[in-house]
Amino acid sequence: SVKWGLIGASTIARQFMINAIRAQEGGEIAAVMSSSAERATAYARENGIPAAVSTLDALLKSDIDAVYISTTNELHLEQALAAIKAGKHVLCEKPLALTSADARKMVATARAAGIVLGTNHHLRNAGAHRAMRDAIAAGRIGKPIAARVFHSVYLPDNLQGWRITRPEAGGGVVLDITVHDADTLRFVLGDDPVEVSAFTQAAGMAGAGLEDGAMCIWRFKSGLIAQSHEGFTTKFAGTGFEVHGSEGSLIASDVMTQKPNGSVLLRTAGAEEQLSFDREDLYVRSVRQFHAAILGNGQPAATGEDGIWSLTAAEAALQSASSGKAVKIDPKL
Ligand code: NDP
Fold first, then answer.
1. pTM of this structure
2. Can you tell me the ipTM of this complex?
């Protein structure tokens, strides 16, 4: 069995990850930690978790094999370092930290300790994105030339908290959503971004010092160019992901989501085909790969290095937006 401790009494754990852990054979949640003893107790009761603690020390001393970190972003680094020191495997939410330098420190520390560290980039686990990646790798669109990511949503009322009010907690749409888009582009294209140019905006939701909309233009190693749009304030936009190649286009709708939704159309000379793909829960697949990695079989769906890449890309987008210049992307791996 794999016994988990939850670091953070969060919405994402309640909505997706508690279920994803319990869906595994031997997947068990032993304890939850909140900074408030009262919230820890209430959260444990509501979610049937046997132990509630309010310090990291108490959590790391309990009988657990792994931790899932889903606190606000400024806390991930020190919590991950403490868990690694205590010999616990770490599945950490994105962004891994507030800076790529801190993310590199986290990954290097885990590697030196022989600890499995994963980044919870759920979209890699979507059947739609894996079908797109497979189609591209099989040459079905010829040479990939350009990609477009549509990932501007409306931040639900219950999440209109630290993301739009607390720069020091790593709020803002770039650290929240651009990281996912950078990761999904890398995964689907099998290519890495080398440069980004970005504009950001505050369209009425984000408070001082934060952005609630971003448009980024990316150049990849292969020469492919991509655009991505991330937002918190568009109620009616829908999501999508397109990759256009010399021999065909992949046009996916409603796929930048937390659920196994959407469709993927392959359009080539004289033909259109809806690609079929598996509809497994994205987070269930993420935890399954993580469990396998703990047992020595393969790697987490998104590794710590992938988390360094996505944060480096997001950091470069923020630098570009504030400087008005294109910024090179170098994860220093
Ligand atoms: P939440 O705002 O739900 O939780 C973050 C922290 O806020 C919790 O750890 C908790 O602190 C505190 N908190 C929660 N509710 C209350 C409350 N009522 N009063 C006071 N404090 C409260 O964040 P999310 O679940 O949306 O995000 C958490 C992390 O997960 C972030 O790093 C985010 O980027 C990531 N995320 C990833 C997603 C993915 O699909 N990969 C999707 C959504 C988020 P405490 O633990 O101390 O109680």
1. 0.98
2. 0.98
